Amino acid sequence: MAIALLPHYIPFNPQNTNFNSFQSHYRRSSTITCSATTSEALSAKRHLLSLISDQERGLKTLRDPKKRSEIVEAVDAMAVLGQDMVTTGDSLSATWRLLWTTEKEQLFIIEKAPVFGTRAGDVLQVIDVENRTLNNVITFPPSGVFFVRSTIEIASSQRVNFRFTSAVLRGKDWEFPLPPYGQGWFESVYLDEDIRVVKDIRGDYLVVDRAPYAWKE
Length: 217
What we know:
Blueprint: H1 38-52, H2 65-81, E1 94-101, H3 104-112, E2 123-128, E3 133-140, E4 144-154, E5 159-170, E6 175-178, E7 183-191, E8 195-200, E9 205-210
């Protein structure tokens, strides 16, 4: 799901990140309820994060079907642990940063950005449950961004419907609006204070963490 500009880019390198020591960056009023024990969830999460830590947000996975199967199996295990969770409450509101995905459109932009003399920075989902908004963002440091605005509707305890309303490609001193396109849904099959694991309408997978900053237009 897609793209935008970050005024102050904070670089993220999965290989230099200690995935076992995430810090929670947001206070949330709602409680995340899970049927799994803490030890089960922690073990499964560590396994998933270990599998994706060297995958360059999914670029390497595209060329490694065996690794993809291992990661999808780990995602499915997280979904089982999160089957009794309510993941569409206030805890969903955050700036979420991409760790890994199978979404080819996002991965294409990440991979091909140098062809256009830039590079892809953080890829984000910015969700505000109260205001029913979702921004999909790809940053191009130091001053570029592509983002797609959407409205959202809570469909169930884990599913969110979305509809794109507008898109913007923005540079330092310019902005180019693009027509809105598309609608669909995604399910946050696991969510805790650190990460969120997602499946969507097209059968793609997404693993994100809570960014250490709040992205704003």
